[in-house]
Amino acid sequence: MTFRALLPPLIAIFAAFLPACGDAGAADEGAGSSAGSGNKNTGSDANSPLPNVSGSAGSGSSNGTTSGPNILGTAPAATWNSARSSVITEALLQSEYAAWKNAHVEACSNGSLVVVKDGSVVSEGIAYGMLLSVAMADQPLFDGLWKFYQDHLDKNGLMNARTAKCEAPSNNSVNAATDADLDATMALIQAASRWPNSTAGYLGKAEALASKILQFETDMCDGRRILRPGDTYGGCSDPSSKRVNPSYFAPGYYKVFARYFNAQASTWLALRDASYQLYAVYQARMNNLVPDWSSPDGSDDGTQSSYSYEACRTPWRVAVDYAWTGDTRARTFMQNVASYVDQHGGLPAAAQQQNSAFVGAFALAGGYDQARFDGYVSRWLGADLVDAPYYQGTLRVLYLLVAAGKFSSTM
Known about the structure:
Layout: H1 9-16, E1 58-62, E2 65-70, H2 90-104, E3 105-107, E4 113-115, E5 120-122, H3 123-135, H4 139-150, E6 162-164, H5 178-194, H6 202-216, E7 218-221, E8 224-227, H7 251-260, H8 265-285, H9 314-325, H10 328-343, H11 356-364, H12 370-382, H13 390-403
Antiparallel strand pairs: 1-2, 3-4, 5-6, 7-8
Helix pairs in contact: 1-2, 2-13, 3-4, 3-5, 3-13, 5-6, 7-8, 7-9, 8-10, 9-10, 9-11, 11-12, 11-13
């Protein structure tokens, strides 16, 4: 059975024919607004509809056991340590992905593709789109997004954090955003596994990008390897902005990078250890949560110190690590978050905002226990949430992939 055969006819139609570049954008990620679906106007700089979702069957795994045919699985099969939700079916994922693509992806005249936020493009969105498209076996979208990333590199070879929509290839001298660079690197590794016969050289490009992240987006701070939020600011080497963003830490990715890129392994593993050291500091002082921003030593940096639209992604980052590696530090972090949830009315009531960026991330924190996870996911999917804007809607689909056990480490 082909991938397309699984799609309801209506989904197949609107996934294939998306609007070209226009002027309308998604609502701001931090607004929590009830903006509309982000329908786009047709613009003169686009010349084709978006490519169809396509792919071939692979094999999946749960708790080390290979399952039957799995359209979304990325070979080779990997151990999945977290609970998985049986209610998040492949048909549901395909429908959610097609709706996301229709709402937020646009084509540019030079063959690149973009994820639009508020009428412009952020590197975060490009990288999120790469993660989604490789998971959904959508190579045309993946390659179009990766083309846009490569067409907008700064002086350090990392994508500028923000560009105009369908901006011509250039360096607009905006700093890079480290979370986007990490997500793009992970997506390239997944692509190398998903499409092993491709001539695109995904794995070599992932290794080169990982090297740039280590060179420009990490610091040594008091003997600890720290992730900077960008290539020109933050960490402890920037005297004007000594800060870090906990939601950028990706300890699960670091384990994968260390596995694939042997020459870089010790540095990635040092970053991994530092992440969990700081998570422990945060949770001890913030009632089991983490801040949007902090000083490099984990203390309050005096700015955005609440659990808000940055920090809300952190349970997702840690849940990915637990699913891929079973790290006990990840399990402890998730248990602490679940304790917060249960002490504050459960889901969705415990969430600071009623959208999937918050509620879905809290749901993933329950993945260390199947019964708890089933309850969390059920209440997440049954809640009345505002997920139309770019940020909330994009994270929703990424979280669903993890909850379903369809977000492969490729290890």
